[in-house]
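Hi team,

Below is the intake form for UspA domain-containing protein from Candidatus Nucleicultrix amoebiphila FS5. Please confirm the fields before the structure is written into the shared record.

FORM ID: S-0412
PROTEIN: UspA domain-containing protein
ORGANISM: Candidatus Nucleicultrix amoebiphila FS5
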Amino acid sequence: MKKILVVLDASEIGQATQQYAIDLAKQFSTPLTGLAILDTPWITASQPEPLGGASFKMVRDDVLIEKSHAHLKEQMDLFKNRCAREKVNSIVLEASGFPETEIERLSYEHDLIVIGRTTDFHFELDDDSDLTVKHVVRDNPRPIITIPGKSSLGNKVLVAYDGSLQTARALHMFLLLGLGIDKELSILTISPTKEQAEEIGKKAKSISELYGAQVRLISVASDEKPEEIILKESQNNDYSLIVMGAFHKTIITEALFGSCTRNIMKRSNLPLFIHH
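The structure came back. Fields below:
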């Protein structure tokens, strides 16, 4: 892994996200880019205005942009100082525009994106705080780690693997980035029969061991919703990360697997490594 992008915001989850990215950068001796985003489309969006109110809105928008820029400058300085204390090589960038667009634009220069499960670009956690994350997870070509709160790197990783192209890509990318080296990987497979689950798991075990991971298989025969089994397993053991594929592209598989990914993102208290 050569370069990590972390999305900055001032929320509690945002602070935990920064620390996680710093710890990861230290582990891999990797440069870290902090991205602060001024969501100008949100600030300047059209709203119902009384007669003659348009000019007032323009003035108000300018004031909000100026205040938001000051908030971002403070965040950027704090992040830069934090990295300096931790002896992490870092740069800090400010972008203006749609958050998901700005993240995608910079993602092509990085191996991994670290982002909070909710994002506070408007300096308050509103009803849309997780929309940017959903868009980034769904559309971005780079792997992503979403952070739900205070988290540590740890040594035990749960891999949710169903043998699909998406989960195979996610596991392979996780291994290629070196994130599985010397880790204890528990590969969870779910199928109507235990034999089928075991057969699926063998392929994941084989490639994981090639990359220096210690692997155990958890083969479950069940018709229960996959997210319930994944969440139950993740809560009952000392895992520090869940690895899984993201959104499928067809309507049918999106309805099945996409909802599974979204539910785990929403309900799990562990960081989630996602790739598709």
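SUMMARY LINE: The chain has two domains: 4-147, 156-275.

Thanks, M.
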